[in-house]
Design goal:
With about 210 residues, the chain is an alpha/beta fold. The protein has one domain: TIM Barrel (Alpha-Beta Barrel), CATH 3.20.20. The protein has an eight-stranded parallel barrel with strand order 1-2-3-4-5-6-7-8, surrounded by six helices. The protein starts with 9 loop residues before the first strand and ends with a helix. The mean pLDDT is about 95.
C-alpha cells in the first residue's frame, strides 16, 4: 500500500498507556476519523503474540480508511500480520534485511539523528526516516533533542521523506516550518486527548501547512 509523500503528513504512533483503559481499536478508529495518514503500532510492553493480535485487529480498520499500518521494530510480527511495513531503530535489523523478509512493497522506516545515519539508512533501502526528538517528549524521557538546523541538514542530505517526531503538538508544530519535512509523527498529542478525532483533525490541518510552505 505504498503511495506518495502525502502518506507521511500525519503519522500516528500508538501508546495505550494514555488511553485510561479504553481499547486501542476504539482510539485508532477515532484517529482515523480525524484524518491520520499512517499508523505505527508501537506497544513495547506487549508480547509478540499480543502485538500480532492487535495488528490483526487494526489492519482492516486502517485499510478501510486507506491508511497503512506499520509495526514498530518487530519484523516477524509485521510479516505474520500482513502489515504494510515496519519501523526500525538504529539498534534493530537493517533495512536491507527487513526488505528481504517483507518484500519489495513493504514500507520501511528508520530512526535517524544524524546526517550520517540518515544517509546510511537511505543507502540500505529505507523508504523514510523518523528524525527526533525535535521537542522534549514524555514518551521517550531519555531522548535528546536535535536542533532545527540538524533536522534541516538531514532533510537536505537525503532523497527520501523525513518525518519529525518528539513532543510535537498544536502549540509548537508550526516551528517546524521551513525544515523540509514531509510530515510529523505524534503520540500523546493524539492518543492522550479527550477528543482524539478532533485532535487528529487539528494536527492534520497544521501539518499540511508545514508541507505546503516548506
Amino acid at each position: 500500500m505504498k503511495s506518495g509523500n502525502s502518506l507521511f503528513t500525519l503519522y500516528a504512533v500508538t501508546d495505550r498507556t494514555w488511553l485510561g483503559g479504553a481499547s486501542l481499536s476504539w482510539a485508532v478508529k477515532e484517529a482515523l476519523t480525524g484524518g491520520i495518514t499512517l499508523l505505527q503500532l508501537r506497544e513495547k510492553n506487549l508480547t509478540d503474540r499480543e502485538m500480532l493480535q492487535e495488528a490483526q485487529e487494526l489492519l482492516p480498520l486502517c485499510h478501510r480508511h486507506g491508511v497503512p499500518l506499520i509495526i514498530n521494530d518487530r519484523v516477524q510480527v509485521a510479516l505474520d500480520a500482513g502489515a504494510d511495513g515496519v519501523h526500525l531503530g538504529q539498534e534493530d535489523m537493517s533495512p536491507r534485511e527487513a526488505r528481504a523478509i517483507l518484500g519489495p512493497d513493504a514500507i520501511i522506516g528508520v530512526s535517524a539523528r544524524t546526517v550520517g545515519s540518515a544517509q546510511r539508512a537511505e543507502q540500505e533501502g529505507a523508504d523514510y526516516l523518523g528524525v527526533g526528538a525535535v521537542f522534549s517528549t514524555s514518551t521517550k524521557t531519555d531522548a535528546q533533542n536535535i536542533s532545527p538546523e540538524t533536522l534541516r541538514q538531514i532533510c537536505q542530505a537525503v532523497h527520501i521523506p523525513v518525518v519529525a517526531i518528539g513532543g510535537i503538538g498544536p502549540d509548537n508544530i508550526l516551528e517546524l516550518l521551513g525544515c523540509g519535512i514531509q510530515g510529523v509523527a505524534v503520540v500523546s498529542s493524539i492518543f492522550a486527548q479527550k477528543n482524539i478525532a478532533q485532535a487528529a483533525s487539528r494536527l492534520r490541518a497544521l501539518s499540511e501547512q508545514i508541507i505546503i510552505q516548506k
